[in-house]
């Protein structure tokens, strides 16, 4: 794979948006896709000249029917196409200036989840090659994009929020999972749950309304308070279930013991 990279060949994976893989001199190499490259220039123009955000650009691309790099119609997570993350990933990729990278990260097994996750390598191990034939935008334009992204970031350090109390348990009416978001105003700090489709694609059949976490927790408390009013009866029922289970286990143990004795007799 390293030799392939040094020779200018394609090292595998999905080609970045704006590019395609072609056969050249017996090797598969990366080349500019003219129609997709024009779309890339339009995206850059919208971001720099029209001050359009990632979500706005993604929505325009979906409305025009432009397919994203990993879009599919199999009902997978990326089946909806362009999102703010895919637009951002496109604009920060140095391949737009003809610079291709390799060995920047490796896939490592996460034993807790059982999945392979990317892990960045040391900067000294990164390899880079410049190919002017792959240039879509100038270095100055690429630098302007990165500078604009930096100005839009908040300077305040972001702390780790941890796992929200209802993480993975709240769903929107459209069926999408809801993610926890934090909001602060003059009245105080609140945590909400918002539809993931609304967050990523700015689209939700039910409007993507926010749900206050404290309101959801209050409903859950009320429901459990009603269930646990008759605690003595619940405990008595639980004890009866446990006694029945022990009785059944003893009966099973006696039956198995009898079967083992019969098997010993037959074997004798």
Structural commentary:
This protein is α+β, with helices and mostly antiparallel strands and 268 residues long. The chain has three domains: 2-103 and 131-152, Putative Large Serine Recombinase, Chain B, Domain 2 (Hect, E3 ligase catalytic domain fold), CATH 3.90.1750; 178-227, no CATH class; 230-268. 42% of the residues lie in helices and 21% in strands. The protein contains eight helices and nine strands. It has helices at residues 2-6, 34-49, 54-64, 84-91, 139-152, 196-201, 213-227, 231-267; strands spanning 19-24, 27-32, 97-102, 105-110, 115-120, 127-135, 178-185, 188-195, 211-212. A three-stranded antiparallel β-sheet has the order 7-8-9. The chain has a two-stranded antiparallel sheet with strand order 1-2. It has a two-stranded antiparallel sheet with strand order 3-6. Helix 3 crosses helix 4. The chain is flat and about 85 Å long.
Q: What's the arrangement of secondary structure elements?
A:
Elements: H1 2-6, E1 19-24, E2 27-32, H2 34-49, H3 54-64, H4 84-91, E3 97-102, E4 105-110, E5 115-120, E6 127-135, H5 139-152, E7 178-185, E8 188-195, H6 196-201, E9 211-212, H7 213-227, H8 231-267
Antiparallel strand pairs: 1-2, 3-6, 4-5, 7-8, 8-9
Structure characteristics:
268 residues, alpha+beta, Hect, E3 ligase catalytic domain fold, 3 domains, three-stranded antiparallel β-sheet, two-stranded antiparallel sheet, 8 helices, flat
The tally of strands reads 9
Roughly how many Å is the radius of gyration?
29 Å
Order of strands in the sheet with the most strands? 7-8-9
Q: Please give the count of helices.
A: 8
Q: What number of structural domains do the residues give?
A: 3
Summed over residues and divided by their number, the pLDDT gives a mean of 84
Our estimate of the beta-strand percent is 15-25%
**What is the architecture of the largest domain at the second tier of CATH?**
Alpha-Beta Complex
- Overall, the morphology is flat
- What is the ordering of alpha helices and beta strands? HEEHHHEEEEHEEHEHH
* CATH domain topology of the largest domain: Hect, E3 ligase catalytic domain fold
């Amino acid at each position: 794979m390293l030799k392939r990279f040094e020779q200018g060949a394609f090292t595998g994976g999905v080609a970045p948006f704006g590019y395609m893989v072609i056969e050249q001199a017996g090797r598969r190499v990366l080349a500019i896709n003219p129609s997709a490259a024009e779309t890339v220039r339009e995206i850059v123009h919208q971001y720099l000249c029209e001050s359009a955000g990632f979500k706005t650009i993604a929505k325009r691309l979906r409305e025009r029917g432009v397919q994203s790099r990993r879009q599919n119609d199999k009902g997978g997570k990326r089946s909806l196409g362009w999102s703010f993350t895919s637009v951002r990933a496109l604009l920060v990729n140095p391949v737009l200036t003809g610079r291709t990278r390799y060995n920047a990260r490796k896939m490592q097994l996460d034993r807790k989840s059982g999945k392979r996750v990317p892990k960045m390598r040391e900067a000294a191990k990164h390899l880079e090659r410049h190919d002017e034939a792959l240039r879509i935008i100038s270095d100055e334009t690429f630098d302007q994009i990165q500078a604009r992204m930096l100005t839009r970031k908040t300077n305040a350090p972001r702390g780790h929020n941890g796992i929200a109390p209802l993480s993975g348990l709240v769903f929107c009416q459209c069926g999408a999972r809801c993610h926890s978001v934090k909001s602060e105003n003059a009245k105080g700090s609140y945590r909400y749950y918002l539809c993931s489709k609304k967050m990523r694609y700015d689209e939700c059949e039910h409007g993507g309304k926010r749900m206050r976490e404290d309101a959801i927790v209050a409903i859950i408390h009320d429901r459990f308070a009603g269930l646990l009013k008759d605690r003595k009866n619940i405990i008595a029922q639980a004890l009866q279930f446990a006694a029945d289970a022990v009785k059944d286990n003893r009966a099973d143990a006696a039956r198995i013991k009898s079967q083992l004795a019969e098997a010993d007799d037959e074997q004798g």
